[in-house]
Amino acid sequence: MEKRSLQRSDFRWFLDMPTRWIDNDQYGHMNNAVYYNVYENVVMTWLEVVQGFNLSSGTVRCFTVENGCQYHDAVRYPDHLQCGLHISRIGNSSVRYELGIFKTGSETVSATGFIVDVFVDAQTERPVSVPDEFRQAMESLVT
Description:
Blueprint: E1 13-18, H1 32-50, E2 60-71, E3 80-90, E4 94-103, E5 109-121, H2 132-138
Antiparallel strand pairs: 1-3, 2-5, 3-4, 4-5
């Protein structure tokens, strides 16, 4: 069974991002590694800027334990992007973010990806339960 293609309406929050000339590879497409930078930037902007969580000097940190990307349509400079974010699962100590990159004005997803983060104690770096304040904020993004 083929997985249904994600649409804009599947995402709960978006971040606008321009592409940069340096993002292109020798074929004139956004380099594969840049997609992962976009995904991480979206998640961290939502956590630290929108929600106000301090992950650099707080009591917990998030370690990425798995990620992935599927490419559906080429992105290239000077495309302007909107990256959508939603959460498909909040576990005891982990969260699965799902992301979609759209060219501004397009309903067709150019790339889809995911990040699985595990919450760890900032001192011991051992897994801990997702703190209540994070869980409460994340529930607004669950689909």
